Amino acid sequence: MDSRVSELFGGCCRPGGGPAVGGTLKARGAGGSSGCGGPKGKKKNGRNRGGKANNPPYLPPEAEDGNIEYKLKLVNPSQYRFEHLVTQMKWRLQEGRGEAVYQIGVEDNGLLVGLAEEEMRASLKTLHRMAEKVGADITVLREREVDYDSDMPRKITEVLVRKVPDNQQFLDLRVAVLGNVDSGKSTLLGVLTQGELDNGRGRARLNLFRHLHEIQSGRTSSISFEILGFNSKGEVVNYSDSRTAEEICESSSKMITFIDLAGHHKYLHTTIFGLTSYCPDCALLLVSANTGIAGTTREHLGLALALKVPFFIVVSKVDLCAKTTVERTVRQLERVLKQPGCHKVPMLVTSEDDAVTAAQQFAQSPNVTPIFTLSSVSGESLDLLKVFLNILPPLTNSKEQEELMQQLTEFQVDEIYTVPEVGTVVGGTLSSGICREGDQLVVGPTDDGCFLELRVCSIQRNRSACRVLRAGQAATLALGDFDRALLRKGMVMVSPEMNPTICSVFEAEIVLLFHATTFRRGFQVTVHVGNVRQTAVVEKIHAKKHTLLLKEGLSSCSLIGLER
Question: SUPFAM superfamilies, per this entry (predicted)?
């Protein structure tokens, strides 16, 4: 949806953080303007006698692909028609990987006709029957009146259809959490996942820390993962009503996996590794309202832009500041986002309608950047962020997912553990293909550039058993009695059919964000390629093409797949 959706549902999110426009959308006049809010004028018919057309409100025409479906009405369909509608819903759910959005009262060409109350009630009842047929639930996101050539009030309704999880195939989105040190990243995640507000002294973040020095300093130095679930009706599922991660997975049809990254500058390499290795769908950039853009905020913003990771912004700690201070921080963010290096369209979210519109536009336009202002202590506007995360659709379509699944298996090794009575366990992300229990793979490269054979004994996703792993999903794989000493971070587990090769010299196209000294031939750099972190030397610079010829350093870690 574009800005016309914003106008339709209350004018909610206006780019640049402008004031929201309330009221009901009026039909566009011949001059193309629309009356959004303000006192009602005299209603005009759909066409004037003088021959001038009165352009009605509209949406973009319905697309054949994607998970958005327009329906004028669904009143008492025949059995044949009902079966056709169910098949159509299955297609939309497949396109949205378990989620679909229905616009009731809208024609296929995008014309907003609306329905009377009785027709709308009958249409929603039919939609509910369709959802039950495919094992899904429906949730009314919002409804608004629309004036279209009628004296009777007419409404359009936007409905979210979410499929009940089947065999643990829930929708999983990974969100990297960025921001300067002490901006409240871990505290916000603690509030979202634990279901309790913070006491103002960091109590909510204690369960997220992995090391003693993190608890003592209050600063994250490693990468941790936290989950937030939503059931098929859009209700939050977290540790407040579930004791374990397994219970959250069983009760959820959509999972948000937060990747909590470090904010301090000395842990910047860890943050870069988290962004490149764990392949987040999007990023949450946290900015403290009382300090504004400070410390590593610009660096984290630059990393997200360079890696082309879509991001939205949360302004935290609004309970500590006056309203004018919060507004000044928002204006500062808007100026940075509009700069030539960013080319983003800031969108301030102030209501539930704003959050729904922001989620849809964020998924469809890479330039839209929603901005939330909230407090982890008072809970102000926290529900708006939950609505946004609940509505946020997958940022990759089903076709891209299918193409990745048809490729040969490639699993990135990010973590290595030894579990009693299980043996060696590796954690990471499946870049391509499908991985099943019992699959025979090869892992490498070793110090001498070889690949070793191994067998996948079992798979777990979000601490729950899983038999099949698909491209783009993160999991842990048990390797039985395979020698842990032969493994290290940065390796890959691939199908033997891939016949993997290694290389020590390669070309890379770079974007120089900032640098303190001269970047020249012979310069030593650290290269991050997926889950590989490797020292290298610049052999040659092609200035016009902005590419470098790099030679691998003396480290034993080799770069995989750069020639493929």
Answer: EF-Tu/eEF-1alpha/eIF2-gamma C-terminal domain, P-loop containing nucleoside triphosphate hydrolases, Translation proteins
